[in-house]
Amino acid sequence: MQEVAKYSNCFVCGDRNDHGLKARFFFDGDKASAEITATEAFEGYRGIYHGGIIATLLDEVMIKAILAGSIIAVTAELSIRYLAPVSVGDKIVLTGWITRSKGRVYLTEGEARGSDGTLYATASAKYIEAKADLKESLESSVE
């Protein structure tokens, strides 16, 4: 598996963002994936990982499946379905993949599971490949 490009100051994948998640994303030729442990720094309720962080991680793993193909895109729509709470200390396994593409539009799906197989959340999203002027700006962030 190859590591997917990142921006070092990104909240999700940046290794230099002191307030971020520092998640590392990999691509196996078909799907993007990452593993992260839920920490109390991102609690929503006591002992429960914040749902917004789960949504953020799912958005990132799905767009990493697109970025792995050297396509610079932005999120247009994101839908999350929460199925079980994530407890602080749980390891979360995230997976994202492209289901369809047409022109500049990419449709994706993703999931967040526990290391025991518990399905915490599923997601679907629509991404739009950036046009030339925005693409150039965004590409300068990717390392």
Describe the structure.
The longest helix is centred in the middle third of the chain and has 17 residues, at 51-67. Strand 8 and strand 9 form a beta hairpin. The protein is built from two helices and nine strands. Helices cover 17% and strands 41% of the residues. It has one domain (2-139): Thiol Ester Dehydrase, Chain A (Roll). The chain is an alpha+beta fold and 143 residues long. Strands 1-2-3-7-8-9-6 form a seven-stranded antiparallel beta sheet, with helices on one face. The chain has a two-stranded antiparallel sheet with strand order 4-5.
Summarize the topology.
Elements: E1 2-3, E2 26-27, E3 32-37, E4 43-45, E5 48-49, H1 51-67, E6 73-82, E7 91-102, E8 105-114, E9 119-129, H2 132-139
In short:
By secondary structure, this protein is of the alpha+beta class.
Number of individual domains? 1
Low-confidence stretches: none
Large-scale geometry = globular
How many helix segments? 2
CATH topology: Thiol Ester Dehydrase, Chain A
CATH class: Alpha Beta
Distance separating the two termini:
17 Å
- The count of DSSP E runs of length 2 or more, i.e. the number of strands, is 9
The ordered H/E elements are EEEEEHEEEEH
| Structural class by SSE content | alpha+beta
- Looking at the overall shape, the CATH architecture is Roll
Radius of gyration: 15 Å
